[in-house]
Amino acid sequence: MERINYSSGSKWEEIVGYSRAVKVGNVVEVTGTVASGPDGQVVGKDDAYSQTKYIYKKIEEVLKRAGAEMKNVVRVRMFVTDISRWQDYGKAHSEFFKEIKPCNTMVEVSALIEPEYLIEIEATAIII
User: Fold this and answer.
1) Residues whose CB falls within 8 Å of the CB of residue 58, separated by 6 or more in sequence, listed in order
2) Alpha carbon distance 114, 64 (integer Å)
3) Residue 64 above 90 pLDDT?
4) Which residues contact 89 (CB under 8 A, 6 or more apart)?
5) Which range has the top average pLDDT, 5-9, 14-18, 35-39, 46-50?
6) Could you please report the per-residue DSSP string of 48-71?
7) What is the four-CA torsion angle of 79, 106, 110, 50, rounded to 10 degrees?
8) What is the DSSP string of 88-99?
9) Predicted model pTM
């Protein structure tokens, strides 16, 4: 099977050695994604809902590039710095997945790469 790497253009991809997404066959894995705008600045500072929604839009964009859609997502992993905001994360999540209902995990972590990031999300899609 062919492997296709999808880049976001971030300088960190070359420095660290990762891709925004990788497609092998009909499976697309999306790497941990944070609310970082095109300018590298945090989008939605101190706003869990806005960060989550922005991240899902970024995930949706790379899935489209890989020939997938949000309806193809079967697994989501959410890493959050304050699980007491679960309703804000969940509200944004439901706007994308209320009907799809992929498997979902939300785990509180002590920190993300930048202190302003409240959430990082990974996703797995299977194109049917």
Assistant:
1) 8, 33
2) 27
3) yes
4) 48, 49, 52, 78, 80, 106, 119
5) 46-50
6) HHHHHHHHHHHHHHHHHHTT--GG
7) 60
8) HHHHHHHHHHTT
9) 0.96
Q: What is the pLDDT of residue 10?
A: 85
The secondary element (H helix, E strand) that includes residue 33 is strand 27-33
Does the structure show a pLDDT above 90 at 101? yes
Alpha carbons 79 and 61: distance in angstroms, whole number:
20
CB 96 within 8 A of CB 104: no
| Closest alpha carbon to 118 in 46, 29, 60 | 46
For the residues 57-76, what does the mean pLDDT come to?
Answer: 98
